[in-house]
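Lay summary. Proteins are chains of building blocks that fold into shapes, and those shapes determine what they do. In this project we predict the shape from the chain. Here is one chain we studied, written as its sequence of building blocks.
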Amino acid sequence: MYILLTIVHVLVCIFLIIVVLLQSGKAADLAGAFGGMGSQTAFGPRGSATLLSKATTLSAILFMCTSLALSIVAMRNAGTSATVLERKTPAKQSVPAGANQPVKPGQAPQPGGVGMPGGPANKPQPAPAPSKK
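And here is the predicted shape, written in a compact code that computers can read:
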């Protein structure tokens, strides 16, 4: 259904472009270039509807209808897929630097990573051994 609507929509778009480009303007004479109108009506002279103007109206109506139909079909299809929050795959969690190093028995874990207080770059110096007297 969605593919058929898309094909019809594209064909209507192409037809609408061609029909609009084939028409001549309402004020195509020299007076129309400077704002002059052929009669005293509010929007200029209104002639009888030609075949091109009827085709433009029909294709514009079809364009609006196919646009609405495509948006409705897309919204109905959007509800069927799982969102990012509904997916069951666990996200990878970041681990601070130095946290994955094994701790030997009897040794306290050192806080921080490289450049952090207590990290490898800022290791405290071991206390000097007590001297025997």
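What the prediction tells us: The chain has a mean pLDDT of 74.
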